[in-house]
Amino acid sequence: MSSIIQLLPDHVANQIAAGEVVQRPASVVKELVENAVDAGASDIKLIIKDAGKTLVQVIDNGKGMGVTDARLCFARHATSKIRLAEDLFSLDTKGFRGEALASIAAIAHVEMKTKEEQEELGTHIVIEGSKFVSQEAAVAPKGTSFSVKNLFFNIPARRNFLKSDTVEQRHIVDEFQRVALAHPNIHFTFYHNGSEMFNLPQSNFRQRIVNIFAGKTNEKLVPIQESTEIVGIQGFVCKPEFAKKSRGEQFFFVNNRFIKSGYLHHAVMGAYEGLLKDGMQPSYFIYLDVPPNTIDINIHPTKTEIKFDDEHALYAILRSAIKHSLGQFNVAPVLDFERDSELDTPYHYKNQGGSFPTIQIDETFNPFSQEETKQSRPLTGGGSLGGGSSYSSYKKPDTSSWESLYVDLKHDTAALSGGVDDRGMVSGGMEDMQFETEIVTSRLFEDHEVEKVVSKTYQLQKKYIVNPIKSGMLIVDQNRAHQRVLYEQFLTSMTVHQAASQQLLFPLNLYYSSAEMELISELKESLKTTGFVFEETDDEHVVISGLPVNISESEVPSVLGQLLSDLLDGIPENSFSQNDSIAKSMAKSLAVKSGAYLTEKEQENLINDLFACKDPNVSPFQKPTFITLGVEDLDKKFAI
Ligand code: ADP
Ligand code: MG
């Protein structure tokens, strides 16, 4: 009986492996440049044509290969870098799978010249689609030169799949920068279509960063340094004031290998806590040294994630090292300047003795007679703004005013206002505000006039909405308040599955990386419940034909982009479910920002909406949405 199972012919097996290793020209760049680094080169040249679609060439002055190795290196699982399974745990080279050259040779025209230092002659090999075309002895300088032409010549589908030159080139630059940043002791040059893109002399980490990113990079960098048993940390983070809207220059290297880690990114962001405006991203270049046997990089040939033995300790050490540096270089106190100087006591009042505030008490007030307090115009702050307040018709019949709404929350708000006290702004809590009198006002004005005054809101610094309330002043952070409102709206529509959707005249085509596309397909069902309508998705793009009503077409890319980056990071916070994360992220993206002008009507609506929320006193990220400033606090200020 002949057997059914047959080994795949080598060239077929190689093509399959190639699919994993080589996705685009940038993958070839990565593999060849890393091989050159592993070969101990001190000088590496990268030459590409047409974003690598026509040519990727890497020339190094490393140790080269002898005749046998020159041929063997194209065989699958041929590697000089590990011999035993145990070696996998003490890896100090980039490559180790012995798959890259075999894969590249399976799908391109490859030419290699290589010579070891001590040899007279080197070897010249031509291999096309896994077939050796020629091999001969040749004159060559010490080191190795690989040129890879006509990538995917035998897999037209893959070739057609490549993106524009601009996109492919950007991927190449990314790969190049990652290796160049990890190895400042190597001289790198990079030519594209004949012009020099980078020329990076041998230097140190700081100089290498500056040479790559040019401009004023140097003055933005704050060094970090830490050395413990489980990790050595060095590198640079950027000063908070240079943080940017977009991600970008954020690099982690572990034992000189570029990695991505949402978890460590979170540690960095933690160190910047309170120093960055919402949504701003700091640049960082962080080099970690860990004992090779405490990490596992053998996850996937092209993936940049790795596993650490002791992630939690690493997280804590990294965060505190950065915090320390930001503090030490006097970066942290910058925040204090954000304090609103208008709220400081003008200095000429400072040394004038003040009189004691007098308190008038309404002796007829009985806190236990609820009827009284609601019906008649109350003399205490604990009641409502007055039955006839212009908001009384708003939504829920039982929520006749904002004040009555948040009085229920008084424990929380007392805590909140206490927290802001050190800025010298806020009350000691709601309880203290009960004994304010309105005798004077109610005698001077007719009821409806009082209400008019009371209902006025105004915007402070396009950031806060201020509203006089009976006991003093309500100050709402417009961004956080709106986040809360949107968050609850999204959650509601997601749980009742009744989101309204606006149909787009022209469907939107959005392109994403494969990792992002994976995530989108995971999130698709949840996103549909918010009002998104997906026409189709393949592994490169989505077509969207309908949107949630509260998102405009132009906001979609940034909202989805933010959502993906929030979730790709795997931020370890208390998100109870995927829906919750989506609602949070979209609320963050869509909420009115500080700096946005709001009409009086919008201010009013926002406050109404906020206090109609289930949990109005904090944003979805647990930050206070409003504070109150009691008349008492004002009195205290004036008494100074
Ligand atoms: P890996 O890097 O995983 O070992 P590769 O397929 O990339 O696998 O390379 C196979 C082998 O070829 C390497 O282990 C190394 O011995 C040799 N090699 C590849 N590139 C070079 C180079 N530029 N200089 C010297 N040797 C090289
Ligand atoms: Mg390799």
Number of DSSP helical runs? 22
Q: Helix coverage percent of residues?
A: 25-40%
Radius of gyration: 32 Å
What general form does the structure show?
elongated
Overview of this protein structure:
With 640 residues, this protein is an alpha+beta fold. Helices cover 36% and strands 20% of the residues. It contains 22 helices and 22 strands. The strands form five sheets. The protein has an eight-stranded mixed sheet with strand order 5-4-3-6-2-1-7-8. A hairpin with a 5-residue loop joins β1 (43-49) and β2. The radius of gyration is 32 Å and the shape is elongated. The protein starts with 9 loop residues before the first helix and ends with a helix. 33% of the residues are buried. Adenosine-5'-diphosphate (ADP) binds next to α2 and α4. Adenosine-5'-diphosphate is lined by residues 31, 35-36, 39, 60, 62-65, 73, 78-81, 95-101, 144.
Per-chain topology:
Layout: H1 10-21, H2 25-38, E1 43-49, E2 55-60, H3 67-72, H4 100-106, E3 109-115, E4 122-128, E5 131-138, E6 143-149, H5 156-161, H6 165-182, E7 187-192, E8 195-200, H7 205-213, H8 217-220, E9 221-227, E10 232-238, E11 250-254, E12 257-259, H9 262-271, E13 284-289, E14 295-296, E15 307-308, H10 311-328, H11 347-350, H12 370-375, H13 402-407, H14 410-420, H15 439-444, H16 447-455, E16 458-460, E17 464-469, E18 472-477, H17 478-496, E19 501-511, H18 514-530, E20 533-537, E21 541-548, H19 556-568, H20 578-590, H21 600-611, E22 626-630, H22 631-638
Parallel strand pairs: 1-7, 11-13
Antiparallel strand pairs: 1-2, 2-6, 3-4, 3-6, 4-5, 7-8, 9-10, 10-13, 11-12, 14-15, 16-17, 17-18, 18-22, 19-21, 20-21
The structure holds adenosine-5'-diphosphate and magnesium ion (MG).
The site of adenosine-5'-diphosphate has 22 residues, from helix 2 and helix 4.
